[in-house]
Amino acid sequence: MLWKSTSYTGWGRALSAAGELARPERMSTLARLGAVPAIGARRSYGDACLNTAGQAADMSRLDRILGFDAETGRVEAEAGVPIGELARLFAPLGWMPAVMPGTGFATVGGCIAMDVHGKNHHADGSFGQHVISLKLMQDGKSRTIAPNRGKALFEATVGGLGQTGIITSAKLQMIPCEGPGMEVTEQRVEDWDEHIALLDSSEARYTVGWLDATARGKHLGRGIVEEARSTAVRPQSAPKGSAKSVPFDFPRFTLSRVIVSGFNKAYYLRIRDGGQTRIKPLEEFFFPLDRIRDWNRLYGKSGFHQFQCALPEAELPRLRSIAERIAGSGLASPLAVLKRLGPGSGGLMSFPMAGYTLAVDFREGPKARALISELISEAQAGGGRIYLAKDSLATEAQVKAMYPDWRRWAEACARHDPEGALETDLTRRLSLRSL
Amino acid sequence: MSETRETWIILGASSSMAGPFIRTLAEAGHGLILAGRDKPDLAAIAADAGARGASHVAQFALDVRDAASFRAILTHAEGCEGQLCCAVFVGSMPDQSQIDAEPGLVSGVVTDSFSGPARFLQALAPMLESRGGGSIVGVGSVAGDRGRLGNYVYGAAKAGFATYLSGLRNRLGREGVHVMTVKPGPVDTAMTWGLGPQPFMTTPDTVARDILKGLRKGRNVVYTAGIWRWVMLVIRMIPEPIFKKMSI
Description:
With 435 residues, chain A is of the alpha+beta class. Helices cover 26% and strands 26% of the residues of chain A. Chain A has a domain at 181-399: Vanillyl-alcohol Oxidase, Chain A, domain 3. Chain B has a single domain, classed as Rossmann fold. Chain B is 47% helix and 16% strand. Chain B is built from nine helices and seven strands; from the N terminus they run E-H-E-H-E-H-E-H-H-E-H-E-H-E-H-H. In chain B, strands 3-2-1-4-5-6-7 form a seven-stranded parallel β-sheet, sandwiched between helices. Chains A and B meet through helix 1 and strand 5 of A and helix 2 of B.
């Protein structure tokens, strides 16, 4: 049967959609579906991957690797291939995806549609900058676009939320690596200034800060900075066995303030005073949470939100005050991520901008929603933006103000999908496609 | 997987269930002869196998109802060195109500799920015998364990195939060739998509794992999910006078 009536959610589980899903296993089947939004691993937190009362194509079974050149590191993959699968297969041969988000389950199609970034954004830019070409299916017909072939459409497609057609496959330029191991140095940072200073001075290709979002006052910004590089040294413990999974929705008290700050303290203290350097399997460094399948269930039935913003470098004081508000609220979850971003971005609606990005999880609830709304306004006031892959609470005016190229993007979408057949809950909520 | 490189003939290579099995073989560096109907899809699967490390990959158009399409596959296989193996994933399951309305469909179902692959294996068997080794994996179905209301023509064809495999095992076992019958319950594929929740549903990944585990252990009959061995044992034990009144 082609269509299944079902209800489904994004990773945050706070929003859900009831609609019809197809899960084609062959390109010919996909072509028969016509123009419907495509969804991948549904690792977007909010409603970017939802189409209430409509149809959508689940691309997860279109996951073949169509070509790999060991000389050049070019790989062609169907949209449903998980990014972690490319790393697993090709890192031992000396190549890995140039950009990997925090979960290896994210698909190639999703990584393009969200123009994802990774721990090396300051060095290597965003995902879309490593796409050599991609195939787009528009109303059942396939076309190939590239940065210099259909430029306008390409720029509207990378980071374009799937609104220009269904991304069916892509040729990607991978980057050389020494093997499947990463040399990871972790250092404790006592406060905000030290945290930022270390992020700024880091010369590593991969740098990320883990922030204790519950630490206040003089401890604000306390955390761990991880720096990493690829190494030929083989990791001691290869990931063994299958991933653990969270078998049920956790009760609400699990993430209570006491437990969360206790966890954070323990996480923080695990690093020795002088820092430590270890060889980790690539997956453990890039996708630390993938080892616990369905970890989103830890937030209970009602789900959670992630607030992620980017702010220009000059707005660092504002970012600090955002972090203060979060810590003061007592609503934040265990780990927050603080990172430097470079200038690189691949498309008109791409999230990354030169400066800093902060990402924090909040269990769904009226207080969290109100706080996130305020934080979004703050980010906007600072000339920053929020990440649409994470959002479920922003307003039309906010997002249109944060993304100065949205009109050009919406015009391209209107040309390639005049009926709005590819609209999702997110584009409707934000009226992103109405000019 | 053993260290020796094998060449695997896959009949029905573009079936959902064959996918993960092919990938595992490819990543272990074995050779593959992929046979199926959907040519563009076959090309994608072959490219995938190559990228994952298969030592060699060939693709052939296959129509199980047309024995003439077997020849090229068999000739190619003959030319491959080392251990030769074959896995059969072909079959077709039209709605029983459709078959009830159109009796002519019966022979197609029997050919797709039983006599077609059996004819292929008959031609392949001497090759394996003369090489004195190799494995044959035949994918049947739990539906073959007892004829029931919902899909008895499909079930009958799969039962025929299972009986054929048991005979083939009897014949080839003494020549060092391992013949394994696989009986999946419902599997999360395009066929079951949209049917709603199925009992003890498993995934193509698990089916592949179970097949490979069965091969390693030299099993004769493998149920996947494993619980179906016991479920079908119970279902087979229900006396016919009672069973005929049931609709399960």
